[in-house]
Design brief:
This protein is α/β, with parallel strands linked by helices. It contains 10 helices and 10 strands.
Length: about 425
């Protein structure tokens, strides 16, 4: 009994520390531009051997793969090369969703390997159309049932959150009316977001038994979510109602980090969108303002690969910075969204990152961010690299979606 009481006390203490740490750290972080220590960003167009890249061919031949390799080994980690068996099961389909404007599909994706089985549940709304439709692929934080009050949505396996409680982030009808579909999965289906939940994650499919089995350059939660985005894409490619050449990958915050990592590696995604992705996402780590490598790896030890810990208070030693992650999306359209009050995510660092990444777009003859000066709030840039900073806090709003749709209209319709 005594042991139990001690255990309970320790648990309460640990949970308290983890949950308190985050707001406390947010309060104590540096938000003063003048206190940023001097730093030199690695040049996106210079290879490890010092070769200067001046054209798209050389970028693809010499630099792109080298950058992916560094991001894999030092930041996000890699997943073992294992063949995972995948099957799809359409659980439900209707052509009467959104007052008859849309089709709804609910697809179970089953994964198997070495006696381990996992599943993910994808919810899809598509505008009714004779033609294949473009789709936003955007994972959700709280369970599929939270994105709408539609009573037909099956609850995600790890969530009991009430129907529709995230509705403000999901203007599904607006998206449908604009001619786009939307596909989503609860991100916990791939890694239930706590270090201790390693066993329930998809990582055991790759032969790991525990967190400590994963090597220093092995992928953890962000890799698992990015892998999930790619497996969702595999399904979208197989769906005859969907134009797989027009899938827009999008993610908010930690899922913005995952969407960027998936979108950087996997060129099947036609457009990549990061919303308020901050540290380890679009923001430059070397600025050490708002959330830092130290804070993020302390609070979320299960997100990045273990090698990333080497750069706590040691950002100068990073062989890459996040503008080079954004550059990996080139020449595909890239959109970075920030929020004025989201200082923890370092809006200016997100913007500068998009600005520096634009150098690679130039090699392809595309205009990226036109100047190093941040645009005014609510004044989006819609070049091949797009950006906005909107008023308000860390969130996904109708305004964000309106900009994403405008950006997709500009770049996807142009190709027709
Ligand atoms: C915070 C974290 C951020 C961001 C955010 C989110 O706790 O510090 O990097 O990812 O969570 O995902 O909402």
């Amino acid at each position: 009994m005594k042991h139990l009481q001690i255990f309970a006390l320790i648990t309460v203490f640990c949970l308290g520390t983890v949950f308190d740490l985050y707001p406390q750290n947010q309060k104590e972080a540096n938000y003063d531009e003048n206190k940023i220590p001097p730093y030199t960003l690695p040049e996106v167009l210079v290879t490890k051997n010092g070769k200067r890249i001046t054209n798209a061919n050389d970028w693809e031949k010499y630099r792109r793969a080298e950058l992916i390799d560094i991001f894999t080994k030092e930041i996000y980690g890699k997943l073992p090369d294992k063949k995972i068996e995948v099957s799809y099961n359409i659980l439900e389909e209707s052509s009467k969703a959104c007052q008859g404007k849309a089709k709804r599909k609910q697809v179970e994706i089953l994964f198997k390997n070495g006696g381990v089985e996992r599943k993910a549940l994808m919810l899809i709304y598509l505008p009714k159309s004779e033609e294949k439709v473009p789709v936003f692929l955007h994972f959700n934080f709280q369970g599929n049932q939270t994105v709408s009050t539609d009573p037909e949505i099956t609850f995600s396996q790890y969530s009991k959150n009430p129907r529709g409680n995230q509705i403000s982030r999901w203007p599904i009808e607006k998206i449908i009316d604009a001619g786009y579909g939307v596909a989503t999965i609860h991100y916990w289906d791939f890694y239930l977001d706590q270090k201790e939940n390693f066993t329930e994650s998809i990582l055991p499919l790759f032969g790991y038994k525990s967190f400590s089995d994963v090597p220093n350059d092995g992928g953890l939660a962000i890799s698992a979510w990015a892998w999930g985005y790619q497996r969702a894409m595999d399904y979208l490619e197989s769906d005859k109602d969907i134009d797989a050449s027009k899938v827009i990958i999008a993610g908010h915050s930690r899922l913005g980090k995952a969407a960027l990592w998936a979108g950087a590696q996997d060129t099947r995604f036609a457009i990549v969108i990061s919303n308020n992705s901050g540290c380890g996402g679009a923001a430059l780590s070397m600025r050490r303002i708002g959330e830092t490598v130290n804070e993020i790896t302390k609070i979320f030890p299960h997100w990045f690969c273990k090698n990333f810990l080497k750069y706590r208070w040691n950002e100068d030693k990073l062989p890459v910075d996040q503008h080079e992650l954004l550059a990996l999306v080139a020449p595909r359209p890239l959109y970075v969204a920030s929020a004025e009050k989201d200082l923890w995510a370092d809006p200016k660092g997100e913007f500068l990152s998009a600005w520096y990444a634009s150098e690679v777009y130039k090699c392809y003859g595309y205009k990226g961010i036109p100047s190093a000066e941040m645009p005014a709030v609510n004044t989006p840039i819609m070049e091949r690299v797009g950006y906005h900073i909107r008023t308000g806090i860390h969130d996904v709003t109708d305004y964000d979606w309106e900009c994403f749709i405008k950006f997709a209209d500009k770049w996807l319709k142009k190709q027709e």
